[in-house]
Amino acid sequence: MAATNQSTGWLRGIVKAVPSGDTLVIMRNPKGDVIPPEKTITLSSIIAPRLARRGGTDEPFAWDSREYLRKLCIGKEVAFRVDYTAQTGREFGSVFLGDKCVEMLVVSQGWAKVKEQGQQKIEASPYLTELMRLEEQAKQQGLGKWSKASGASEASIRNLPPSAVGDSANFDTVRFALENKGRSLPAIVEQVRDGSTVRVYLLPEFQFVQVFMTGIQSPSMGRKPATETVAQADPSSHEQNGETAAEPRGQMTSAQRVAAVDSTEVAPDPFGREAKHFTERRVLHRDVRIVLEGTDKFNNLIGSVYYNDGTEAKNLALELVTNVRALWVVKLSSNISKHDALVFYFEWHVDMLHQLYCMDGCEVSAESLRSLMCFVIHLFDHLCCANLQGLAKYVQWSSTNLEEKNRKEIKAAEIEAKKKRIRMWTNYVPPPSDSKAIHDQNFTGKVVEVVSGDCIIVADDSVPFGSPLAERRVNLSSIRAPLLRSQNERPESYARDAKEFLRKRLIGRQVNVSMEYSRKVPVGGQAAQAAGTADSRVMDFGSVFLVSPLKTEGDDATSMQSIAGGQPAGYNVAEMVVSNGYARVVRHREFEERSNYYDALLTAEAKANASKKGIHSQKEPPAQHIQDLTNATAKRTKDFLPFLQRSRRLPAIVEYVLSGHRFKLLIPRETCGIAFSFSGVRCPGRGEPYADEALAFMRRKILQRDVEIEVETVDRTGTFLGSLWESKTNMAAVLLEAGLARLQTFGLDRIPDSHILSQAEDSAKRQKLKIWENYVEGQEVPNGTPAPQNREKEVLKVVVTEVLGGGKFYVQTVGDQLVSSIQQQLASLEIGEPPVVGSFNPKKGDLVLAQFSADNSWNRAMIVNVPRGASVQTQKDEFEVFYIDYGNQEIVPYNCLRPLPPSIHSVPGLAQLCSLAFIKIPSLDEDYGQEAAEYLSELTLGIPREFRAMIEEKDTSTGKTKGQGTGTVLLVTLVNVEAGSSVNAAMLKAGLARLEKRNRWDPSERKSAIDNLVEFQEEAKRSRSGMWEYGDIQSDEEDSAPPARKAAGKR
């Protein structure tokens, strides 16, 4: 065959692949991210034995020949020259590895023969004479294919399985994966289909399989027009060296057969070629270790590919997602710097580069090359530290087979690549998310209540007892337990078991809590959300760690092990729940906040699923039939009394604390729930002082604890009366000793521990605790007698923050710890740049941070009105906001709004709406309404003044707070502390208010208060002040008496 003489001079490159014993694929040294050009060079004037094609067998010594050349050259830098080119385009050349000629080495070891002179239809190698001499020498020594050993030729032919010669139909991948799962199998990568898929020979049986890398997926290489076969190994096999043979083909995969229906060519995905090149550079025709982890739903093998980079074994999947380019470091001494090593490396190459340039006829001085190298060193120093990511994406379904460390690294690298929009993530736009991260909110406390299998309430140790912030609801991050549902609905399977699992292990125990994210969820569920009628609430999620768990029956070893890797001291409660089969792991969307220990949760779920535990089992939990006697008739509860009195003491569980002395108990032995109250002990009633504190006290002490009870009798409302012990301690005595209850003398003789109860109450009286703070011996109301009707009114120390019309105004409590806590948190916030339009869309009723126009301070606010349209269009769109801590309202632009941090989101507004009691003040659109508002502002605002607000009544008829002037209204008598004067009286005296009508059915307290204010109104009338300027007036809005009651008649 004619040839064209195209000697192009000496070039350098890296051997990328070795398809056969006489062919090399050489690429230029890579520069940055650009895929370098490559050449396929067939060694001049020699022929190596041919490898097997589809359905065939190897020629003798073909595999040994290829292996010799592969191990000699793969991945190494070589110098080469094209000696001649055939008309078909195939290039033949001479290759040097260092100062040694590769074709001479191959021939000298007997792995190829020199073409006979008569076969030379094209130009020969310039080293032909030497090649012939080396061939003769190898024959004489019996080397390689010239071996004189008996049977050597037959032994060198591989016994290939069907999969290696294109017949993989009978290869059972599922069985093979099960038999070899977790084993490290030696292999040679023959092809790279795409960045995350390789085709390998598994040694020593030479099974030819395709392996998808576990946990990742690279961009697709597209699809070429379909044919019956697909390119496989050995593209260099030929009839004779110098003539091109058809490229061998392998059998199509199942996916390719499906794709063959459409013969349209599909271009590679962006960065598909880069990902494939990345993998080829590292593993193509290299020795690797394959660790099989299973198969996918199409029975394709999935596994991890490990290769040796010269220093250590590396996971190729991890390298694809996170690849930090290594520096060229020459280790001349133990303390050599990276920069000095680079200088040494390039200086060492100056002479070689100079010689190569001169060989091409270029006149370049060594000094010029040194100057060039200095620039390259600085550039390379910068490039080598760049984080090159984004050539594959994380695949969660298969990542569960990876080691936890690798799984975390791959996922973290993918998230980082997406954030930086690197390579395949250049145009990535994160999906909208309703979750927000919570940073630096860690606390310790005791578990007070288990709400469900994935939600608990923890009493924060750092918050004083009795504060509204003392108990914090924590939803366990990234897991979902079965729903308990309401009383009228049947709970999901294992919902009660999940709650009981946590109750036994957590109630009263010390835990460490790490808050991680908050999420807005619809109150009415998914149905209400779809209908667009659901309100939303913010839920806080975190990881909870049990400091010192008890080994409880039903726990396995995995649920009690601590997770490695920098978590707070203790045992992850969420992992315990999941590993015992009482919850599932939530599959989060991309960029959605999740547990910091998400991978450990996935591993625990996989183990629970494999063991068929709990919700993963095929059987339903044992049915629980509980008789609820809390709403039963008195007759039915009385009939049940003998069953509860058979045993002196009964074990029970406190399900709810209804008040300080009344509880709902579950009695497992009798499978019933009852209402239970302390016998002879009573706490303050609802609305009375210390009622809430007594309730909180007993929640901390006995809620969801295992207790013992002794039932004495049942009252006429169906509540069982008796004594209750927790850890052998009479809890009624504890309540009395804390000064939160009174002991009734009636029926005291039938209480077993009556002397203990009396001693506890006497102790509280001596110390004047709580309800006994004003106790004077001999003057207290006798126990068992009704208390006087005139209850002590609640008095608050307040400052007025905003005045409205009609006598309404907002106040803020003075000295409240909650007020100072909120103010400190707001002052410590770091306010960032205005949000990008579209990333933050406040809706009506949402709580946000808003910048007050008067002093540019940032305060909590409620959105009252939003701009027209579905979403924000510009930074100047206006929102009407109500400042919930001060009571004022204004219109602010979008760039003065920020999302409200979860830590202060759930705290109620600090501004309380009030109105002056017993008087009527005209509204702003009535006569003297404007003057009344100005005078009230003059009395209450301006110089900071402290007032004492005595609450006379509460008006809840306006419902929830929806903006300024809405919500619960306190009707108060407002007294200036410094002056000692009543604001109510001052408004009457100025003639800017009038008294409400006194009715005969009013309580005596109200009548007395109105009588005391009459003189101030009369003074205004006499002086013709304000509204009395033209004499007495009649109101059209006087309260009228209620309609007369109809006489009751017989049916």
From TrEMBL:
Presence of the UniProt keyword Cytoplasm in the record:
yes
Q: Which PROSITE patterns match?
A: TNASE_3, TUDOR
Q: Which SMART domains match?
A: SNc, TUDOR
One molecular function GO term is: hydrolase activity
TNase-like domain residues are 9-148, 183-427, 441-618, 648-774, 857-1030
Gene Ontology cellular-component annotations: cytoplasmic stress granule; cytosol; endoplasmic reticulum; nuclear envelope; P-body; perinuclear region of cytoplasm; RNAi effector complex
Which part of the chain is the Tudor domain?
A: 841-907
Q: Give the UniProt subcellular location, in the record's own words.
A: Cytoplasm, Perinuclear region; Cytoplasmic granule; Endoplasmic reticulum
Mind telling me which Pfam families this protein's record contains? SNase (PF00565), TUDOR (PF00567)
Q: Which UniProt keywords apply?
A: Acetylation, Cytoplasm, Endoplasmic reticulum, Hydrolase, Nuclease, Phosphoprotein, Repeat
GO terms (BP aspect): cellular response to heat; mRNA catabolic process; mRNA processing; positive regulation of gibberellin biosynthetic process; regulatory ncRNA-mediated gene silencing; response to salt stress
This protein's major location comes to: cytoplasm
Instruction: Identify this protein by name.
Output: Ribonuclease
Q: Which organism is it from?
A: Carnegiea gigantea
